[in-house]
Design goal:
29% of the residues lie in helices and 26% in strands. It has a five-stranded mixed beta barrel with strand order 5-8-7-6-9. Bound molecules: hypoxanthine.
């Protein structure tokens, strides 16, 4: 991570299909994951497995294009590897992005959702109790300060704010599951992010979570990984523009 040019300001974890727009704006170097000691390697389309380290909007950043997921049989330690690496490299801020299915009936495909809170429904945890901090405080886990900054820079009327339900996957949800998740208070659902947020809070990082709503979940709403990648390409630019504003005012 020295290649970011010193101590990191912020790290970004990029969800499915979201890497192109962000990586194009970082001036620096590319580090394939097989050069990062202990990094979990991934082979899913849309998850390239490259860290982009350099400067963006006057900040030293690293963007991880590709993450490990529980549905690949990865352990919570592997899933949170990039968060821990970012903290070790000095980042105080982490941006967790993902592709998600929309549950809130007001949402449209292509909307961004700033994550205000989450439901960890993975059945897993990413932290262990230690003497100094036996229980982790998860109130305001998604920084109200960073969300306010993001709201100030979204400027397109298609940015929502809501609750992300993190499931283990890899199946997309049944309609009954989607209905149940709505009743639990979820606005969007995906298969990542929640364990990374727990690890980040444990390490004292400030978290900004952004979902791109790549599909809506409801009757007659089909979804495939290809559809998700297609929608992500369009949304990636809007996430990159929003992040540029946020980074510039950190
Ligand atoms: N469900 C879960 N994860 C997802 C979805 C979905 O509909 N879309 C993109 N990631």
């Amino acid at each position: 991570m020295r290649r970011a040019g010193g101590t990191l300001d912020a790290a970004i974890v990029l969800g499915s299909g979201l890497s192109a727009a962000v990586s194009a704006r970082i001036v620096g170097s590319e580090i394939p994951y097989d050069k990062l000691e202990g990094a979990p390697l991934s082979h899913l389309a849309g998850h390239p497995g490259i860290a982009f380290a350099g400067s963006w909007a006057g900040k030293r950043v690293v963007a991880f294009a590709g993450r490990a997921h529980l549905y690949q049989g990865r352990t919570p330690d592997e899933v949170t590897y990039f968060v821990r690496l970012a903290a070790k490299a000095g980042a105080r801020t982490i941006v967790l992005t993902n592709a998600a299915g929309g549950l809130n009936t007001w949402y449209a495909r292509g909307d961004l959702m700033l994550i205000s809170d989450h439901l960890n429904l993975t059945g897993a945890t990413a932290i262990a109790p230690d003497d100094s901090q036996p229980f982790l405080n998860m109130l305001d886990a998604y920084s109200p300060r960073l969300r306010a900054l993001a709201r100030a820079h979204c400027g397109d009327g298609r940015t929502q704010e809501g609750v992300y339900a993190g499931l283990r996957g890899p199946a997309y949800e049944t309609l009954a599951e989607a209905a149940a998740l709505r009743r639990l208070g979820a606005d969007a659902v995906g298969m990542s992010t929640v364990l990374e947020t727990m690890a980040a809070r444990k390490l004292g990082l400030e978290v900004l979570g952004i979902s791109l709503i790549t599909n809506l979940i409801g009757p007659a709403q089909d979804v495939s990984h290809e559809d998700v990648l297609e929608a992500s390409k369009e949304g990636g630019e809007r996430i990159a523009t929003l992040l540029e504003g946020v980074l510039g005012s950190l």
